[in-house]
Amino acid sequence: FCHFSSPLFTHSNLMISEISISSHFTSIPSFIIHLLLLDLCETVLSFRMDLNGLPFELIQEIDSFLPFEDSLNLQSALPRCLSLLSFYDSIQVCDDPNECFIIDSKGRKERRPFLERNFSLVARSLVNLKEVTLMVKEANPYALPSTSLSSFTPFKETSLYCGGGLMGRLVSELEDSFPLLSSITIHIDVSFDSIKGHLLYCPTEDLYFALRSLTWSNCKVLIQISFGSMEFSESDALARNFLMRGMKETMEKIELSHPHANVEFVIDPFQGYTDMTIELPNLEYSFAFFYYNPSICDAVDKKEEMMESEGECDDSSSTYPLHLLPPPIHS
Fold this sequence. Notes:
Layout: H1 2-5, H2 11-24, H3 30-52, H4 56-63, H5 68-77, E1 90-94, E2 101-103, E3 112-113, H6 119-125, E4 131-139, H7 165-174, E5 183-192, H8 205-213, E6 220-229, H9 237-257, E7 262-268, E8 273-280, E9 283-291, H10 303-313
Parallel strand pairs: 1-4, 4-5, 5-6, 6-9
Antiparallel strand pairs: 1-2, 2-3, 7-8, 8-9
Helix pairs in contact: 2-3, 7-8
């Protein structure tokens, strides 16, 4: 529907397409390509006339069912169709394509999906944008830091250790929308098959970017990052202790530079969970490391089995107790 309503479908563009198609399909006589494109052009123009003849209310009703990209095309093709995007004030962008959508927090309009690669365009198009949420469920733990990432690079391929982290990239893509925001939320999950042989650095780029660039604003910032390891090995002690030392050093730096910050470090030996939390008036940062066994919490078909599985997930057997592991190194 909206491919035909798009402004890309003009007579001149179709003629340019004729030259391009003829150069690729030399076996097809050029006059046949010309006739086919002329017929398509007439169909498109007729289709547009039919759209222009529709009542305004019906066009808006059609628009309300369209994804963001198609809605934008429709508005470009039919300027009299007023944008409904002004109703939307919240964005959720995710590495799961089924969880990228814009939201009307007041419930007046249904949420609309969009493509992750169009996040920057979406943000610029929402004049009343107030809330942004970034969720990365399967962040690449081996993504290399880079300063030349484009907006088309998936968020999951952005390294947590590049300058500014994912928060820095998110703010850069928000552009002029950023000063108007009331909240930014980031959830990043990084899964390792094993941490054996790794030197795990505490991911602080997002934290320090937020401290440098966001603490002066009225925007509430929540950053949650987690590292999970599928397997446990006795030789993990080096990687685990290296990570915990980095967490401790980070907290010490924050306590010196922000003496009013609420800083907490937790080790739960029964749940196999290590967590650091830093809270300031408009910033909350948390980083967690844990071991887990996904086979215990796999989804099951039967409701009874699912309930039993949920019960097992609450049991300490679903993680590796840290009290059985060597304690973290204290500096």
